[in-house]
Specification:
heterodimer; A: 423 residues; 20 helices; B: 292 residues; two-stranded antiparallel sheet
């Protein structure tokens, strides 16, 4: 009997610990260790990159951080959102820019980084600052920048005696030549939902970049004749067979098709080079990139920009130490120390970038010298409630281009409802 | 404290840890779920009380209506195919030599997680997957079948994967039921000149009723709750065409962050499962009472 009571007492003492124990940021010897959450678990996973950065920041500021990775973006978003109002909020976490960030800023969940932006004002420039400004404050900073060019297989171009297209007509010639040779011009998919916006945004910026901005910000309607025209052109391309079938795998399998000359091109962010193409055996010397020419010559040269922000949770502990780490990370040397791991473009434009592969260097030179307009990616540039519906509607259109009328009507409905709700 | 009271106290103390876990990790979230179903809440801002509007939305939201219809398709198909097929397989395996080998074959998919099953079948159904390779080889037509992007073919494809995995569970349950059937009535039927089909129809199947009730109830509940397989294979897409109620609940809660609406959908789903499965079990129990 006494033994039983003793066992029970022990169990009851241990139980609260089991139930309510939580990891503290500070280890037993009172050394401050910050934490960072992210969802970059894909190929390559970012855990070793953040581990390396922790070593760098420890050396530079005296403070390092652990990093917690989540396997799926939706789970990650739910976890971050639920932790932000509590004192278990992460010190730093990766997020998405513009509207995806705005909802967190509006709810006062993010730390105002204006003093650090003021300190680094000469490095970042006003346009980047504006992309992270909501109200009177600046939140987060760009870890890295990714551009969205057309990746092409140089061998295919060489085999078919093709030149990199600089006009829409030349681009169509490239596609038609590939088709005649039995090569599908483009990798494309509806799998995973989000990739459906890729071609949509390209078609709209190729019609008129101002229209694209107006559409994202509610000043233009999806039923605008110029939007419809862009959709119709996209539909013609689908009908002609310019794209792989909608259920395609654009990752490992897609890279294989690219490598085996079954597919000639892929319109993807610059991360696709190191995350998908080279890890799946595509030789670096076979990979080229160009900016998709606008189908409307008056639209000029445009390319989609995807910024990868890091933000600071307002409720996180050890704020002073966190700001020291962020301050260093925003600096040219701190930022490049991180993006060098990714082989990505520095978020800080003044950051050294000599580590980039030649194909990315060439692309950056083109962007910097040929008056190319940078436009925010649709995923971030348009409000999330619209985007989440839109990607499904784009999928409907990709599977059946004849559904254009329905798609336009549904897009207008969701956009009208959203903009009416925020007025 | 006398001996009896002390024993009772210790019993309660032993139950306490488990009870605490149930309260903290099940009951409180359930109560919270009911509470939030009456609110408009995005998970960040202050919840706004909107009464029954989330429940009213269920009846007018085309996505919910579609997912409800898809769920019904899943339930009906599950009752018609995996359950019926499992019963047939169980009956045949009981009769044939080497049945244990085939039991293993049908049972193996059950030991694989739904996520792994999803990945296996994604590869089977992919453009360059086994199925398309066979179809192309047989028909000599290079055009592949878009198993996962054509509606309603994508739902049918997932139901095939579902059958492959679920059949093993029901087969094992039916085999258990078959072993408990006494041989006397079967021998009597043989003496009366009944053939195998007549024996099955008039003796075996009626005597299997208790286990059939368990299987059908489980099948109804499982198919209503289907989430992981669909989420892995199609994410409920394309354009939300293959969502079931569980997937819609997840999408609204964790993609759209309509937390209140997601909570309402989960309650509607729970109510449907309780009413249908509870009603079925009750009707079967009544029949059992009539028999005895």
């Amino acid at each position: 009997m006494k033994k039983g009571l003793l066992v029970l007492c022990v169990m009851l003492m241990v139980l609260p610990t089991m139930l309510f124990a939580s990891g503290d940021q500070e280890s037993v010897d009172d050394e401050i260790v910050l934490n960072l959450m992210h969802d970059k678990s894909g190929a390559p996973g970012w855990v070793p990159f953040f581990d390396h950065m922790s070593e760098v920041t420890t050396e530079a500021t005296g403070y390092g951080f652990t990093n917690t990775v989540f396997p799926a973006t939706d789970i990650y978003m739910a976890q971050v959102r639920s932790s932000l109002p509590t004192d278990e909020a992460p010190n730093m976490f990766t997020w998405w820019s513009t509207y995806r960030m705005k909802e967190l800023a509006d709810e006062d969940m993010l730390m105002d980084l204006t003093p650090l932006w003021d300190k680094h004002a000469d490095e970042y420039g006003e346009d980047l600052r504006q992309a992270f400004t909501f109200g009177d404050a600046v939140y987060g900073f760009p870890l890295n920048n990714e551009y969205w060019p057309v990746w092409y297989n140089k061998e295919v171009f060489k085999d078919l005696s093709l030149e990199v297209p600089t006009t829409w007509d030349e681009f169509i010639y490239v596609c038609d030549t590939m088709l005649e040779a039995g090569i599908t011009p483009f990798l494309s998919t509806v799998e995973g939902r989000w990739p459906t916006f890729i071609m949509f945004e390209e078609m709209i910026i190729g019609e008129d970049p101002d229209l694209y901005v107006d559409l994202c910000e509610g000043r233009a309607k999806y039923s605008d004749p110029r939007v419809v025209k862009a959709f119709e052109l996209w539909g013609d391309m689908i009908r002609k067979g310019y794209f792989t079938e909608p259920g395609s795998d654009i990752w490992a399998v897609g890279a294989g098709q690219f490598n085996q000359k079954e597919v000639g091109m892929a319109l993807m962010g610059t991360w696709y080079y190191g995350a998908t193409l080279t890890p799946n055996g595509v030789p670096e010397e076979n990979i080229g990139a160009f900016i998709l020419p606008s189908h409307n010559p008056d639209a000029g040269n445009n390319i989609i920009l995807e910024m990868g922000p890091l933000v600071v949770a307002k409720n996180a502990k050890n704020m002073e130490e966190t700001m020291e780490v962020v301050d260093y990370w925003m600096s040219p040397e701190g930022n490049s120390a991180f993006v060098e791991q990714l082989l990505s473009f520095p978020g800080n434009p003044k950051g050294p970038a000599e580590f980039l592969p030649q194909v990315k260097v060439d692309l950056l030179n083109t962007i910097n010298t040929e008056n190319v307009r940078l436009l925010n990616r649709y995923w971030e540039a348009t409000p999330t409630p619209i985007c989440e519906v839109a990607v499904d509607e784009f999928a409907r259109f990709m599977i059946n281009p004849d559904s254009l009328e329905t798609v336009i009507a549904n897009l207008d409905t969701v956009a009208d409802n959203y903009w009416a709700s925020v007025k | 404290m006398n001996e009896r009271k002390s024993k009772i106290l210790i019993s309660y103390l032993f139950v306490l840890p488990a009870l605490l876990f149930v309260v903290v990790f099940l009951l409180i979230p359930m109560i919270q779920n009911v509470y939030y179903s009456f609110f408009a809440w995005n998970g960040l801002s202050k919840p706004i009380f909107i009464g029954l509007k989330n429940f009213q939305k269920c009846f007018v939201d085309p996505n919910f209506v579609r997912s409800f219809m898809n769920t019904i398709i899943w339930v009906v198909f599950t009752l018609l195919v995996p359950v019926s097929f499992a019963l047939l397989v169980a009956v045949f395996l009981k009769e044939i030599k080497g049945g244990s080998f085939f039991k293993g074959v049908f049972f193996i998919p059950l030991t694989i997680s739904f996520v792994s099953t999803g990945v296996i079948w994604i590869n089977m159904f992919s453009t360059k997957g086994v199925l398309n390779t066979i179809i192309t080889a047989v028909t000599r037509n290079p055009d592949t079948v878009s198993w996962l992007t054509q509606v309603p073919l994508n739902t049918i494809a997932m139901l095939i994967a579902w059958t492959w995995q679920q059949m093993g569970v029901y087969m094992v349950l039916f085999l258990m039921g078959l072993t408990t059937i006494p041989q006397d009535p079967i021998e009597a039927a043989v003496i009366d000149g009944a053939n195998k089909f007549q024996i099955f129809k008039a003796v075996t199947f009626p005597m299997l009723q208790p286990i059939t009730t368990v299987v059908i109830t489980q099948a109804i509940v499982n198919s209503f709750k289907t989430f992981d397989l669909i989420y892995v294979i199609t994410h409920g897409g394309p354009y939300r065409s293959s969502e079931t109620m569980a997937v819609t609940m997840y999408r609204e809660t964790f993609s759209m962050f309509n937390m209140g609406y997601g909570a309402a959908i989960s309650l509607v789903l729970s109510a449907i499962i309780i009413i249908i499965s509870g009603g079925y079990v009750k009707s079967q129990l009544k029949q059992d009472l009539l028999h005895y």
